[in-house]
Amino acid sequence: MRARHTTHITNIGGITIGGALNIAIQSMTNSNTADIKSTVQQIIDLKNAGSKIVRITVNDDEAANAVPYIKQQLIEKGCNIPLVGCFHYNGHILLKKYPSCAMALDKYRINPGNVGFGNKKDVNFISIIETLLKQDAIGKTPFSNIYYNKALRIGANWGSIDTTLMNELIDKNNTSINPKSYNEIIKCALITSTIQSVKLAVKTGMTENQIVLSCKISNPIDVIDVYQKIAKKSNCALHIGLTEAGNDEHGALKTATAMSVLLYNGYGDTIRASTTNINKPRSYEVKICQQILQAMGLQSFSPAITSCPGCGRTNNQYFKQLVQGIQQYIEKNHQYWLSLYSKTNELKIAIMGCIVNGPGESKHADIGLSLPGNAEHPSAVVYINGQKHCTLHNEGCILSEFKKIINNYIKNKQDITQCSD
């Protein structure tokens, strides 16, 4: 794993990102922002799932007017999570028209491809930056003391590229001796548009440690290429992910493909899985990010299960039921175990189907169980910290006995500070 690219530390409503700090998972609501009750509940659900930052759409008067009420209700419910306002086309108008919205948000997201067109582009962009930097001029509000000097995300997207810049690059490419492919021009436009916006933001009064960058494409290979290139041109914090990744598992796999390469090479300070969750809750995108970070060894969110795929040597049906039973047991008891043992998230549990790799994998785990295969003696060996702990002989009791072993292991590992009395 390579050192992190970003050296700047950015504060987003009390959450700091960049440098060697933990990578923050970000998510976005899909409720109508003007529906305050639904939006508040979805933000709470996303936070409870593990999101550290939540973005909401601010697209019209009703949404902008709702933002301070959403923030206030979140505070009253004890949900102090940074809110990002997502602006397209009319952000400069809404932020001026609704100063309480401008104050309540912790970060503004601007898309350089649609912040304005022609000679209005820079004017609108500067207007948003001036609002972002504005000091309290309208008296005390619930947000007066804590929500000024916002962070900014300059978020370019290949579905909404700056058309003027794109046309200039195409014209230049048409006369080039070594013309680039259309795909390369798109990536060049994304990067150029983003860096130009950074320079204008700094010129207007921002510092680079207030700025987060993203350049999103829906193809993993292109996303990897774009972020590697933009990281050479800026030291700002990076928000990584695909745009329009796809539905459910398909989107999760595409996201993991791109993110794992970027994270391994030190790119990424906030991440999001932009998946279409057809049969899953909105919080599924948070779970995807957690699983990627845990698989990369960057953060741990729950005990990890190592299990084999099963084969002709394995009692496949029983083995699958055992793995599923332990997974459900972990999900049910995870929060309680954390109250006992702070390193519960780091536990590794192995459930293996036969003696070929079973004992070895079980010894590598904190707690491991090696089932007998179809041809072996009907007994399951349990290992703890690499040493044989016991042998379970009754197939009907293996699941219940192994649950007890996991629970006792965690209880015996209780933090000293919690056992001092």
UniProtKB/TrEMBL annotation:
Q: Where is the IspG TIM-barrel domain?
A: 9-289
The prosthetic group or cofactor this protein requires is: [4Fe-4S] cluster
The enzyme's main class, written as a single word, is: oxidoreductase
Query: Record's InterPro entries?
Result: Dihydropteroate_synth-like_sf, IspG_bac-typ, IspG_C, IspG_TIM, NO2/SO3_Rdtase_4Fe4S_sf
Q: Which parts of the sequence belong to the IspG C-terminal domain?
A: 305-407
Key words of the record: 4Fe-4S, Iron, Iron-sulfur, Isoprene biosynthesis, Metal-binding, Oxidoreductase
Q: Which domain of life is it from?
A: Bacteria
State the name under which the record lists this protein. Answer: 4-hydroxy-3-methylbut-2-en-1-yl diphosphate synthase (Flavodoxin)
Q: Pfam families annotated for this entry?
A: GcpE, GcpE_C
Q: Which organism is it from?
A: Candidatus Xenohaliotis californiensis
One Gene Ontology MF term: 4-hydroxy-3-methylbut-2-enyl-diphosphate synthase activity (flavodoxin)
Could you tell me the gene encoding this protein?
ispG
